[in-house]
Amino acid sequence: VVSGLDVLDHPGATVGLGALVDHHCHGLVTDDLDRAGFEGYMNEAVRASPLGTTLFDSMLGLAIRRWCAPLLDLEPLAPAEEYLARRTELGATEVSRRLMHATGIDTFVVDTGLTPELVTPPADLADLAGARGHHDVVRLEAVAQQVLRDSPAGAGDFAEEVTARLTSSEGVAFKSIAAYRVGLDLPGSKPSADDLAAALSEVRPGPEGTYRLAHPVVNGWLAWTAVEIGRPLQLHVGYGDNDVDLADCDPLRLTAFLRATEERGVPVLLLHNYPFHRNAAYLAQVFEHAFMDVGLGTHNAGAFSDAMLRESMELVPFGKLLFSSDAYGLAELYLLATLLFRRNLGGLLGSLLDAGEMSPGDAAYVAGLVARDNARRVYGLT
Ligand SMILES: [Zn+2]
Predict the structure, then answer these.
(1) What is the model's pTM?
(2) How confident is the model at residue 133 (pLDDT cuts 50, 70, 90)?
(3) How far is CA 359 from the centre of its chain?
(4) Residues 103, 334: contact at Cβ < 8 Å?
C-alpha cells in the first residue's frame, strides 16, 4: 500500500495494516509556502517564536526530515533549508500528490468547518491520494453561527432552523468545538427552551456581523441536539492551538454528558486526546458509545509517539480505537500520521505476537479494526 517507503522495514513493525480510514482530518494548502509560511502550518504554534528557534527543532521537524525528504528525492534527514528548497522546486501540488499517495488512506472523513477558504475540498484531497472516497463532517458551531448571521431572531426560530439545517446536511457526523469555546463541561441534560433563549439574548455579533459562539448553554444545546438527531458526534478533546484552554479539555469533564447520553446509543468520538489519552481510553471502556483516537499528537511526537498509542491500548477496547491523522494544511502531516501509526500499531501488535500474547489471527483482526473497520461501523460507511 505504501509506495516509496516500506514501513515494514522498521524494527518491530511486523504487522501490516493495509488501507486506512482517516476519521478526522482537514484539507491541504496547495499554495507554495515560504519558510515562515510552512512553519506556520507545522504544529499548533502560530509561528516559530522569535524568542525560540525554528519549529524544525522538534520531534516533528526530525520526522519531516527523516521520512518526507526521501519522497522528495532527498537523503533522509536532509537539512530543513534543503527540504524546503526542494519542496518549492517541485511545487506544493506535486509534493502533496507524492506524499498523499504514500499514505495508503482509502477513505477520508473530513472536517470541512475549519478555514474552508484556505484548503482543498474533500474531493481534491481524495484525488491527490488516489483514495476511494470521502465524507463530510459538519461543524455544529459553524452551522449555528450561520443561522444567527442569516436571521438574528428569537430562540424558537434559532432552535428550529439549526435543527433543520443539521438534519438536512449531508454529513456522516457532527463535530463540536465546545472545547475551544467553553471547555468540556457539557451539561448532563439538554438545556431547556427558556435557558436557550436566555443564553442567546447574551450572544452578540462581532464587528463584521459574524458570530463566535462561546456560551456554555448554547454550545451544550448544540451537542445535545446532535445526539438527538442521531448521527455520530465528534468532540475536540485535549491538544490544540493556543485558542484552547487545555486545562478545561480533559475528557473526564465529559463524564456527566456521556453518562446522560449513553442510553441513546449514538457514538461519541473523542478526538486527539493527548495528553489525556489514558483518560479517554478509560471513558471508551466504561461508556458504550464512547470512542477515541490519538490523532495530532502522533505526528507531533514523531519517533516518540509509540508511547501514547501503547498507553491508550492499556484500557481502550480494540473496537473503540480509531485511526485519525488530524492533518491540516501540509501533506507532510498526513504522511507522518499514517507512517507513524502503521509503525506504532504494527510494532505493538508485533511485540504481542512475538511474546505469544496474541495469535497471528488476533493481530490481523485488531489491525483491521483500528485501521478501518471501527470507522466503517461507527459512521456506517460502505
Ligand atoms: Zn482536529
Answers:
(1) 0.94
(2) very high
(3) 31
(4) yes
